[in-house]
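Title: [Solved] ATP-dependent protease 3D structure

Original question kept below for reference.
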Amino acid sequence: MSLAIVHSRAKIGIQAPAVTIEVHLANGMPSLTLVGMPETAVRESKDRVRSALQNAQLEFPSLKRITINLAPADLPKEGGRFDLAIALGLLAASGQIPGDCLNECECLGELALSGELRPVQGVLPAALACRALNRTLLLPRANAAEAALVRGVRIVAAEHLLELCEHLRGERELPGVNVESRPQSRPVSADLADVQGQAQAKRALIVAAAGGHNLLLFGPPGTGKTLLASRLPGILPALSEAEALEVAAIQSVCGQADLSCWPQRPFRAPHHGASAAALVGGGSQPRPGEISQAHQGVLFLDELPEFDRKVLEMLREPLESGCIHIARAREQLSFPARFQLIAAMNPCPCGYQGDPSGRCRCSPEQIERYRGKLSGPLLDRIDLHLGMLNETFSLGHEQVGKPSSAEAAQWVAQARSCQQQRQNCLNAHLDLAALREHCRLSEADQQWLELAITRLGLSRRASHRALKVARTLADLDGVSSIERAHLAEALQYRQLDRRPMA
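Solution (posted by the thread starter after getting help):
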C-alpha cells in the first residue's frame, strides 16, 4: 500500500481539532516533503522520525519519493505531537504494519531518536474528542494517566515505537489503561479554624463561598488577609466530574496537569508584576492565562493596587461573562474564565490607616490617590468589600476552632444546593431577569433599600451585587425570602464605596 491515512489532533487553545496525516510513497527522485502549514517543530519531525525508525530496527523508505500532508492545510500545527502519527503512516504506507488497523485510531506522541515515546501537552482535550468519535487513542505511557481521566475512552499506551508496532501487527497485546484508576481522595487544605479572631472576615469568606461572590479584603499588614484567602478552597465543594475535566483540560494544554489535585478547585495567586498576557492569556500562540487556569476555582490577587491598572481593567469583561476572548490576525480564541476573585490590599500607602497605634501619617489626598488605582467599574464587580483591623495577639485557644473548615463547608454546600434547586446557578451568576424573580422584596424593604442605595451613592451594578449577596445571606439562614437584616448586612460589605475615605 503506497498511501496511508492516520488520524491525530492539533492543539489550538483548549480545543483539539482533528488532523489527518496522509503519507504517500511514489517512485522518483528520493525526497521527503512535508506540507500542510507545519511550524518549525513539525518540519523537524522528519529527522526525528527517520532516526527513530532506524534505531528501532524498522525500515525507513529512503529510496522513495515521500509526501506527507497534514490536513486541513489552513490549520496551524505546532510541536512534536504528530511524530507518532507520521511514523505510523510511513510504516503503513511501506507495508510494515497493516494499514486498516489505524482506521479507528488516533495517535499522539513525540518520538525520541531512539524510538522512545515522549509525552506531549494537551492530551486531555484530545481524549475527550476521541471518545466522542468512539476511537482508540494511541499515545505515550507517560500521558496515559492523564487521558484516563476521561471515562469511556479506549487507550493503548506504549513506551517505545517498536512495542506499538508489535501491538498493531497482533504480535503482542499491550495492556489497556484502566480508565477508572483516577485519584479519589481530596487533598487536605488548611483549616479555617487556624485563623484567630476576625469573626466578621470569616463570615464574609463563608458568604463569598456560598454564593460564588468576589471578595476584597483591606486592612493593615498582618491582619490575616492572605491567611483567610488561602482557606477558601477548603470550604468550597469539590468539582463535579464535568467541571473537573474542564479544569484538567486547561491544565493539560498548559503542561501543568497535576492528578494529585483531582478534583480540587484550582487556587491561583499570581505576583503583582504579572503582565496582561500572563494574567488574561495571549501570546503569539495564545495560551490560557491565570484567570483561565483559575477557572471553577479561586484567583487571589494580593496587593491589588500594585498591579498595573491596565492589567486590572482587563478583568472587567471576564468577571461579567465568565470567559475571555483573544483576537489575533489569523485566529480568534475563547478561554473559559469563570473564577472567583479574592483580592487583598492595604487601606493606604503606608498600610496602617485605622490601626489603633495611630502610626499612619497618610493625608486624605494620598489615600485617595492610592485607592484611585482601582477604578469604580472594577470595584462594582467585587461583591463584598470588608475592612480588617489587627486584633489582640493571643496564644490561647479561646478564639480557635469556630468555625472549622468542615463546618463552614457544610453550610456552603447547603446554601449552594438551595441555589441550584431554585435557579440552577449560583447567586453571583444571576442575570437581571432571574434577579427580579428570585430576589423579590416587600414594598417597605424595597423603599428602605432604595433610600440606602441613594445615601451610599451605589451604582446600579453595585446595587444588584448587594442584592445578590442578600439572597446568599438568606440561603445561609435557610429562609426563602430576603429580610431587611440580610439587606443591611449586604450593604455593610460595600465599605470601599463610602466617602470620605479618610
